[in-house]
């Protein structure tokens, strides 16, 4: 969105993707938006990543109050504040960008006149892929397993379609304490639909101190090892491991398709 | 991949995503890799984005010689050089990461012992989404329309599956001078499979001086406006435009699914 729209006073709303964790993945535009802001809004683990400074008022909030958070941000920006709403990864991928625009769509007319700038970031799937090698060298799907806001039926339909299309599949929000079953149900379905030898990666907390990478194949890998911080990647029929000296492996989905058939 | 593997001398190979164009989207890790490198390899429009400096030897190349470029990089790194191979956007998404690992997979054993670090970047789909609003608030697919390395049949199969799964669809490499037909064929197919009122965005050169955004619906938008620099986004059944004062629009795929039915 343009940053030239000043129709609503001096207020401005940045929606900022902070990347998956480390500072090395925070884009300069995100850093600049956080420096320009005078109000910081987001889920507390994300606001905690932004250094304290004079002139930046902080409004950390709990999880699962995205629309309240969005309306709060829109109100502050309409009152002339420069507001940064932060998400982990990219704010557009299952992040706060959609929540803010949903709130703006049905809220006060002034909210739709606001200067809103979405600042893209490195999404979790890109960081995980980089860590693993090149699993996204070909077409892929990104699916959230959370059924908080969508019926499980649509998730099943999408997993089926993704398998039918032989996409590489990236699963976000695969499990939480409140939703421990989805990842088991998803693996049960994918095991019916895809070859058991399909490579799978469980990439937890990539780039952070508690990073943990587990590689295996679809038939044998344990979905019980997946938690909320895990990005799950399930290969296409072309995805394979490349063995390396010392026992390490790279994960590759080649750019060509069907070359070996 | 870890940066601690020194089994192959002092050489190192970075595979770096430069983002979609402007410096504001180049992550600090990418900047650091470019500063550490003594050899720069890539398609010339991408190497041109890296400032000249003493100690950095440049090897710009033509398009469509990815494997030659990859082998050159692997050889230099094996000889002890610190090599940066650059891609636009994210190097893992239809970029050089897969080409380098393909070359390493079948090449000399030393190549698989190399310290290779993939540095993630802001992919074109994320930058386009941020510019447009929040079109990726829900599940999505990323498909390259290039049939240089895969049969058109698999592209058709994936477009069908993406439509059946009601994914938001991002199309990379939608057209080139050598491949002017694919985008017309893809739109013909998508118009059969999806509602004609589905929102579509043609996001060309986002973040660059020659940026051009065209919004419309699937039935009426002209695929003739799509070129190689365009990221095409086709909505799901939930994707919609939010009208704004002054005639601008945001594009939104809400986080919920089926709420209005």
Automatic annotation (TrEMBL), chains A, B:
Show the stretches that span the lipid bilayer: none
E.C. number, please? Answer: 2.1.1.131
Instruction: Give the highest taxon in the source lineage.
Output: Bacteria
**Pfam families attached here?**
TP_methylase
Which SUPFAM superfamilies did the record assign?
Answer: Tetrapyrrole methylase
Give the pathway. Answer: Cofactor biosynthesis; adenosylcobalamin biosynthesis
The name under which this protein is listed is Precorrin-3B C(17)-methyltransferase
Task: State the species of origin.
Answer: Candidatus Rhodoblastus alkanivorans
The gene coding this protein? cobJ
């Amino acid at each position: 969105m343009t940053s030239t729209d000043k129709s609503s006073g001096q207020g401005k709303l940045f929606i900022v993707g902070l990347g998956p964790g480390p500072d090395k993945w925070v884009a300069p535009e995100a850093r600049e938006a956080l420096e320009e802001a005078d109000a910081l809004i987001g889920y507390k683990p994300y606001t905690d990543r932004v250094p304290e400074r004079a002139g930046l008022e902080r409004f950390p909030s709990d999880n699962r109050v995205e629309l309240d958070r969005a309306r709060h941000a829109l109100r502050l920006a309409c009152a002339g504040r420069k507001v940064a709403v932060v998400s982990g990864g990219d704010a557009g991928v299952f992040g706060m960008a959609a929540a803010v625009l949903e709130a703006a769509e049905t809220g006060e007319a002034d909210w739709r006149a606001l200067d809103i700038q979405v600042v893209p970031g490195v999404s979790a799937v890109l960081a995980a892929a980089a860590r693993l090698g090149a699993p996204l060298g070909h077409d892929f799907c990104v699916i959230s397993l959370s059924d908080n806001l969508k019926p499980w039926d649509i998730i099943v339909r999408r997993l089926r379609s993704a398998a039918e299309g032989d996409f590489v599949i990236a699963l976000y929000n695969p499990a939480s304490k409140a939703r421990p079953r989805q990842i088991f149900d998803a693996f049960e379905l994918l095991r019916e639909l895809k070859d058991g030898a399909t490579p799978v990666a469980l990439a937890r907390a990539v780039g952070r101190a508690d990073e943990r990478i587990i590689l295996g194949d679809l038939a044998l890998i344990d979905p019980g090892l997946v938690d909320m911080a895990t990005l799950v990647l399930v290969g296409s029929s072309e995805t394979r491991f490349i063995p390396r000296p010392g026992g390490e492996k790279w994960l590759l989905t080649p750019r060509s398709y069907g070359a070996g058939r």
